[in-house]
Amino acid sequence: MKISLLKSMSAGCALAAMVSACSSGDQSTSTTDSVMADSPKVVALKPAGPAPEWGKTIKPEMQVVIEKLASYGDKPIETLSAVDARKNHTPTDAVMDLVKQNNITVPAPQVDTVGKDIAVNGGKMHMRIYTPKLGKAPFPIIVYYHGGGFVIANIDVYNASAQALAEQVNAIVVSVAYRLGPEDKFPTAHNDAFAAYEWTVKNAAGINGDPAKIAVVGESAGGNLAANVSIMARDNKIMLPVHQVLVYPIAQANMNTESYKMYANAKPLNKAMMTWFTEQYLSTMIESQNPKISLVNANLKGLPATTIITAEIDPLHDDGAMLANKLADAGVKVNSRNYEGVTHEFFGMALIVPEAKAAQAYAAEQLKAAFKTSGL
Fold first, then answer.
1. In 10 A of CB 44, how many CB atoms?
2. Could you say which of 69, 153, 275, 279 would form a disulfide bridge with 94 (CB–CB 3.0 to 4.6 Å)?
3. How many other CB atoms are found less than 10 A from the CB of residue 83?
4. Looking at the UniProt record for this protein, which Gene Ontology cellular component terms does it annotate, in alphabetical order (predicted)?
5. Which residues are catalytic?
6. What is the structure's pLDDT at 150?
7. What's the rounded Cα separation, in Å, for the pair 273 and 153?
8. What kind of fold does domain 11-373 have according to CATH?
9. Between the CA atoms of 186, 337, 176 and 27, what dihedral angle is there, to the nearest 10 degrees?
10. What percentage of residues in the chain have a pLDDT greater than 90?
11. pLDDT tens digits for range 14-30
12. Buried b vs exposed e over 280-317: b needs ≥16 C-beta within 10 Å?
């Protein structure tokens, strides 16, 4: 079955999909939605200028975030060293500054957090564990992997995503601070990601979690890591995640796809940055063909049911579509949803961007359904 995330489903299905996925339930099928202007509004912010040339369909709230990010005047990441690139402002900075400037109420966290260091090959790795304040243990568990091209960002930058998942699913979230390139080259991040999952499987009960209900979620590079964790769990014959949510994942190395061409100059992620990330994390460009990087070349049979979320204005849009196709061809149940008018990194912006709020609710719905049916 072939899927095009660029195509909208019927209006009726798109509306119904806000509540539940339009799925036949067949284990080897895949469903796709394109979520449009019927997403709930969070706050009405208006951009200062016209839509950018690279994103004429951009939604107003999304454009406001992009304008704020541009206002910092940071040098392009692809022109910097990794150390300096990590000092740049992030989309999260832009969102939080807009929240302050517009007196937007930030709800009090409904989770408690604690840090945890674990030993990994060649060193140690930090994780942040989010535990719901309400509800009864044992809780289901989500192992979460942040984005940043395997080079930049951290669990603080992606706190909003991890916290939202914990609160909306009422699950423990283990957010993984895997080691980054170029200081730690491929496949260090991939091995760290699996080590964190192994630790979670072995220690689920000790963190008030249910060892039979563990899922993986990742954004961008983290989406690639989450999928690799499922593959490594299968190959190492340890418990598979009950579900995986892959948000605009890095899934292949060809930077001449239609979305790479259309959004080569997009913000906050563009083609030049993707080339830079690849050079920073990999020892040679030949490694980009490794199935751990190019997931579309991997053996995907026997992986858990998968939810793929993509953004329209994103060079990685087609990566998600291609991976959805490959998973479906391998007999994996896939539900996919594309959010129009938004860019890469939108998922954690629910305080500002309505589509982010909708995407988080969709991911939470998919995870809750998977947890409900697992371990029965």
1. 10
2. 69
3. 10
4. cytosol
5. 220, 314, 344
6. 98
7. 14
8. Rossmann fold (3.40.50)
9. -90
10. 87
11. 333 333 333 333 333 44
12. bbbeeeebbebebbbbbebebeebbbbbbbbbbbbbbb
